[in-house]
Amino acid sequence: MAINIYFDFDMTLAYRIMMWTDTVRELLLEECVVVKREDIRPFYTFNGYPWNRPDLSHEEFFKGKEWWQNSKDFLIEGLIEKGLTDEATARRVADKFPSRFADIRYWRLFSDTLPAVKKLKELGYSVNILSNHVPEAREIITKLGIIDEFDRVILSSEVGYEKPNEAIFKIAVYGRENDINVMVGDNFNADVKGAINAGMKAILVRENNSGNYKYYLKDLNGLDAMIEEVINNET
């Protein structure tokens, strides 16, 4: 029986130096507009992205809009309604945001990522990425120099569903339903609960384990041993 490991990407394998809110603040600063994080975060970070509504397919969520257009529209609306800037400036910031967020200069691998992935491959596991992310995710993964380490890369922006929606997990394990499939990620709801509800095993990493989930690691060191424990205890 084959063993397939599925990694979340953002905050599991890699991270961005400045995330959503601070990227907007950086672009505003370049327009000579200084704002506080709390002025942006409520109207932007928790809205405007399809992973905020994983119950919906992308077709239902975007309603005909391009992937980034929904976020850009929401950003423009929020900046103007909050009185943070004028419309022309808001539109310039929104137009720059997608390419700035995907700029590889801001992205870093965790130091334990490649050792963990290579160890699993040495053990004969199929190693994959299963991620909620922007349309440029495949490009980011490629530029980080790790895409060839993975057998498959399944991205929400390409398949049209977000974790924890069962549909994206079913797409990921299609043809592998009789294998042992293990999800590794930092988000308990999206990665752990979503995977378990879809019939997979799951390991929580990096994120604070406030719920005392049994299969948890503070980083990717020892992941091979944890996978073995999950398999032996759950089969």
Count of DSSP strands:
8
Rg, rounded, reads 19 Å
Total helices: the number is: 11
Termini gap: 11 Å
Ranges with pLDDT <50 over ≥5 residues?
none
Mean pLDDT: 95
> What structural class do you assign from the helix and strand content?
alpha/beta
Which percent range fits the helix content? Answer: 40-55%
Element-level helix/strand string: EEHHHHHEHEHEHHEHEEH
Strand content: 5-15%
Spatial ordering of strands, largest sheet = 5-4-1-6-7-8
Q: Strands, helices and their partners?
A:
Elements: E1 3-7, E2 14-16, H1 20-30, H2 37-44, H3 58-62, H4 67-81, H5 87-102, E3 107-109, H6 113-122, E4 126-131, H7 137-143, E5 152-155, H8 156-159, H9 166-172, E6 180-185, H10 188-197, E7 201-205, E8 216-217, H11 223-234
Parallel strand pairs: 1-4, 1-6, 4-5, 6-7, 7-8
Antiparallel strand pairs: 2-3
Helix pairs in contact: 1-2, 1-5, 4-5
Q: How would you explain this protein's 3D organization?
A:
The protein has 235 residues and is an alpha/beta fold. The chain has eleven helices and eight strands. The protein has helices at residues 20-30, 37-44, 58-62, 67-81, 87-102, 113-122, 137-143, 156-159, 166-172, 188-197, 223-234; strands at residues 3-7, 14-16, 107-109, 126-131, 152-155, 180-185, 201-205, 216-217. The N and C termini lie close together (11 Å). The relative contact order is 0.17.
Please tag this protein with its features.
235 residues, alpha/beta, six-stranded parallel β-sheet, two-stranded antiparallel ribbon, 45% helix, elongated
